[in-house]
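[job 4417] fold queue: 2 targets
>>> target A
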Amino acid sequence: MAAIDCHFASNKDILSTKTYACEVLSFSSVQTHELDVIWNNAFRRIFNCFWRESVKPLQYFCSSLPLTWLMDERRLVFYRKAMVHSNIVIRTLMSVSGVYVDYIGLCHKYQIPNPYCSVSYIKHAIWRDFVKCVDCKPSYSQLI
């Protein structure tokens, strides 16, 4: 188990460097899908899973978000910090540009009612949305 933890920890370090500044970049849906596939294949390789199986239960039990949710979380946290920043220029840029519209759209997507909520609330809302998508119940054929 320690080998898996070590490998997984280094994988998270690699992920953080590969997704550096993803909160300010806009990816097409094709690019986002390709990044998701790479992240999912890393889980399949680490846990020696079949390629056709969903890795969402593995990600759930590893307390790791899929890349799409992770990128949205980073964008929401970035936008929220920009909105409450002490520098008036940063706050003004946040409200003038189309970024605010994107921020409100993401808040709506993850059912975040208050755009000024805490970072921990944002992370919890995204985790809650991911948990709704995970089917961790074993099927009847898996129980036999």
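>>> target B
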Amino acid sequence: MENNEMVTTTETVEETKADVQTEQTTETKEIKKEKFYTREEVERIKKAEREAILEEEKIKRTEAEKLASMKTEEKLKYQLEKEQKEKEQLLKKINASELKDEALKIATSPETQFDVDFLNLIDFERIDADSLNEKTKLIKKVQDKLIAKAISEFSKEPAPQTGEQKKANLSGFEKFLENNK
């Protein structure tokens, strides 16, 4: 077989339509779509799955070997340290989630409203509540400056030029021509 040989798989997609006036009437249609994979793509997918499984098994095996070589007291200490690390990670995630919620409240409140996309710049896992307030104030200040600058740029009109201003803007040759008329 060639590498370019195509392997087909069939995906079934269910599509449901409901009549708005009569909620009792429901139709279901099955639409078959064919997705083609080359032999090379299939092999690549299988290889990636195998590697992921082998990596998981390797981690579990090294963990088991490490525990087997330890004494009972060392095992307990190791497991305690491991659980404490997991607990700290969970607390960081919870704290980050709470800080993100607070930042969203600040970003959407009428007094301090700013674009929520700016919050993507903040690493909530490495920040505390005080610095969050400072950063949100800074973001608001920067956004206000950007808005003011954009408004002033778009609202500027060039000043009408008088005869004297026109002469000041002329090059040397143009001035010579203007004076010799």
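[job 4417] complete. Note on B: Residues 1-31 have pLDDT under 50 and may be disordered.
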